[in-house]
Design goal:
3-stranded antiparallel beta sheet; two-stranded antiparallel ribbon; 1 helix; 5 strands; about 15% strand
Amino acid sequence: MKSFIGKKLSDVISHLELSKEKYVILNDGWKLDGHEINVPYPPQSSLADYPYKVNDKLTYEMKFCIPSNFDDEKVLLHFGAVDQIAKVSVNGQEVGS
C-alpha cells in the first residue's frame, strides 16, 4: 500500500483519481461525547461552542448518507484535524484506525 504520510491532500486526491464534483464536507451535525459541537474547531475553542468537560478519550459521532451519485465509487473519509489515535466505524463496523 502506498504511504501518503507528509503528502498534500491534493496529491492524495490526484493519486486516487477522485472527481472534484464528488465530495461532501461534513462539518455540521457532529456530537462529542453525546453533546453537539462545532467542527472543525477543537472542543477547547470558543468557536466549538462546547461548554462541557474535555476528557482524555473523546468520542465524536456523526450520521450522514452517501449521496446517490457516489454509487459504485470508493469513498475516502479525510479527517484533517486528527492528531492522536483514531478509530473509525461505519454502521457499527470498524473500518480503519
